[in-house]
Amino acid sequence: MLKEKTYYETKASEADYLAWYKTQDWQTYDKPAMTVDNIIFAFDPTDRQLKLLLIERKAHPFKDKFALIGGFVDPSESAKQAALRETAEETGVKITDDNQMWQIGAFTDPNRDPRQWIISVAHATFLSPFVAAHAGDDAKDARWFAVSKDETGAIVFLSSDLTIGLDDLAFDHKDIILATFKRIKESLDVTPDILHVLGDEFTSTDALAVLKCFDSKFEHYSTGNFVKTYVKNNPILMDTGRFEENPNKPGRPKKMLRLRK
């Protein structure tokens, strides 16, 4: 057997090796199933808050628990394609620009899913414009939650009648969200991609509303200091030279900013 293995690995053609491998070795390895999870952020213009999209699970496991959007990867698709499909099926949200989606990483704890050994590839989506969500497929509910913090500083998600803490979520979605928030926070002073939720142009007020969800230091910035820091001193943002168009809003119109390309 050892001589046969050595022959196919080192002497035979790749086609012959693969044909042999599928009959000899393929069945000897335990194989995990693969899923995707999608952490979808968007900025709601009606109340000017950053929001996260969650679904309420219709079936076991974690029936009636809120969770990230996700599901199993089909053999014919990539992880990103699966995330796009699952998002549309479960929430009705169609992400037409997949450049809005970033891969966060693989979550591989063998006990993360009670059904079997399942690896999840997590993505973060910075969606713009904001759209309504509607439950479908195996989701009982799909809704946007405002990203906030409780009195201890812990991340919570708020809707009109419900508060969801990280420990209330299904599977290891607490770990996925914490990893995503950490990744976003670490990038804020270099490439604050989360600001894509605001569209191509945005005001300093809206930028601060988003950024403070990930780093409390932004709670202490005035809009003037923010512009001075991130447009002039550490120019990761650009002044477009335009002002917001909202004649019914009191006070001076705010400058429109954009991410520096």
Automatic annotation (TrEMBL):
GO molecular function terms attached to this record: hydrolase activity
Domain Nudix hydrolase: 33-168
Renumbered residue ranges of the record's region Disordered: 241-261
Lineage: Bacteria, Bacillati, Bacillota, Bacilli, Lactobacillales
Protein name: Nudix hydrolase domain-containing protein
Keywords from the named record: Hydrolase
Basic residues compositional bias, start-end: 251-261
PANTHER family listed in its UniProt record: ADP-RIBOSE PYROPHOSPHATASE (PTHR43736), NUDIX HYDROLASE DOMAIN-CONTAINING PROTEIN (PTHR43736:SF5)
Organism: Pseudolactococcus paracarnosus
Gene3D superfamilies: Nucleoside Triphosphate Pyrophosphohydrolase, Nudix-associated domain, Winged helix-like DNA-binding domain superfamily/Winged helix DNA-binding domain
InterPro entries linked: NUDIX_hydrolase-like_dom_sf, NUDIX_hydrolase_CS, NUDIX_hydrolase_dom, WH-like_DNA-bd_sf
